[in-house]
Structures are given as C-alpha cells and as structure tokens.
Amino acid sequence: MKLLIISSSQRLDSQSAKVGRYIADSSFLSPHTMGYDAIYHLELCRFELPFWDGEEHSKGKHWPEIKQKIDEADALVLITPEWGGMASPLLKNFLLMCTRVETAHKPALLISVSTGIGGTYPIVEVKMNALKNNKLVPIPDHLIIRNVSNVLNTIPEDARDIALRERVQYSLHMLHQYAQALVPIRERHANQAYPKQQEYCYGM
C-alpha cells in the first residue's frame, strides 16, 4: 500500500509542509501504520500548476508526475492552511484537477492548519464542495492543528503537544484501516461495474 501526503500552502517552508513532514515520519515509525510500502510527501507550491480551465491538456507540465503518485496511492492526507477562513486556492485547484479515475473511493485524512485558534472552516469547505466529482472519501477523523508554530516541532513542547501527537497517531491508524477496507470496493467497482455506471460518474 502507498500513502500520499499533499501539503497545499502556497509558501515555501510553510507550517503546512512541517505538518506534512511530521505525518510522513510518523507514518513510517508508527507500529499502527507499518503496512505502507511507500510514503510520499508533495508540497504543491514546488510544482508549476496552472489554474485549471476545465481542459485536460491545461494541467501543466508537472501534472503527469503528480498524477502518477495519486494513481499509485491507496490513501491520501490533504493538508491546508486556513486563509481568510478558507482552504488554500492551491488545494482547491488541485482537487479540481483530480478526477475519479485517480481518486474515486480512496480515503483521505483532512488536516487544517492555523497559526491561531481557527481551522474549522477549511475542513467544512472541503467536505462540503471539493469532493463531489473526484469521489475521494474523507474519513470522519479530520485534524485541526491550532497554534501550529508551537506544536509538532522536533521536541514536544507540553502536554497539549503530546496529546496532539497521540491524536495524529490515532487518525493515521484509522486512515490505514479505511485504506485497507476500500481496496476491494475499488476492485469490484472496476471489475463488476454497475449497469450504466458511466451515467452516474458525477455527484449530485
């Protein structure tokens, strides 16, 4: 199995990327998620992704590289900063580029990052309107990383930081459980298609 972590801040050396690196390291080290053969962490700001205009050929020169990682992934972690109460434009653009061919019936752990005490709205936004046609399956155990500058650093700061790390481990464990459970669903979807399945390829 393969895990793909996407951090979607539009800034280099961001707190979102820090969280992504922590998730990648935790997934390698945790006894609860040792079932992954490979773990990849992509910072979207390091790729030249144009704003998508709805045409397949307009996804840019780096999209084939990203698409390959999505195709191979059995589970995704989507990390977004909160900007003005919204998920990052980079994440929303990325999710518009994803199609059900790459992402349908794959579980996703949603993570919102805030430098303050916010972080709720990006989770709500992504769950409400960013997964309709790509058919990613958000697991119930999303994470909100508040006061992110003070947590998930090299050494735990305090009891809150330690508790957050434990919560991260639980969420990664659940993501791995969903990844295992959804593999046979994708296989049946591919090999035993519902009659007129293509008529229902888009969400309502």
UniProtKB/TrEMBL annotation:
Superkingdom classification of source: Bacteria
UniProt keyword terms in alphabetical order: Flavoprotein, FMN
Pfam families: FMN_red
Span of domain NADPH-dependent FMN reductase-like: 1-146
Entry keyword annotation includes Flavoprotein: yes
This protein's name: FMN reductase
Organism whose genome encodes this protein: Shewanella glacialipiscicola
